[in-house]
Amino acid sequence: MPLAKDLLHPSPEEEKRSHKKKRLVQSPNSYFMDVKCPGCYKITTVFSHAQTVVLCVGCSTVLCQPTGGKARLTEGQWSQHFV
C-alpha cells in the first residue's frame, strides 16, 4: 500500500466511490433517463431516484418501481440516461 496518495488527480473509480460532497468537483449521483415503453414505444423522461411508480402516458403500463434508492426499471424497458 503506497503511503503517498495523489489528492489532486484521483482515479475515476476512486472519484466515483467517494461521497458526492467530498469529490474534487461536487456532482450529484442522480440523473434523468429516457425510458421507452415496450407496448406503445413512447418515450418518457424518468428521474433515476423516483419515489413514486412511473406509468406510461400512452398505455398506462408501469415503467419503473421505487426502491430505497434508485428506481428499478420493470422487465423489457430500455433506457438512456442523460445529464
Automatic annotation (TrEMBL):
Q: Give UniProt keywords alphabetically.
A: Metal-binding, Ribonucleoprotein, Ribosomal protein, Zinc, Zinc-finger
UniProt cofactor note? Binds 1 zinc ion per subunit.
Bias (Basic and acidic residues) occurs at 1-17
The Gene Ontology biological process annotation of the record reads: translation
Q: Does the keyword Zinc apply?
A: yes
Q: Which domain of life is it from?
A: Eukaryota
Query: Region (Disordered) spans which residues?
Result: 1-23
**Cofactor (UniProt):** Zn(2+)
Q: Name one GO molecular function term.
A: structural constituent of ribosome
Keyword presence, Cytoplasm = no
**Which InterPro entries does the protein's record reference?**
Ribosomal_eS27, Ribosomal_eS27_Zn-bd_dom_sf, Ribosomal_zn-bd
Gene Ontology cellular-component terms listed: ribonucleoprotein complex; ribosome
To which protein family does this belong?
Answer: Belongs to the eukaryotic ribosomal protein eS27 family.
This chain belongs to the protein called: 40S ribosomal protein S27
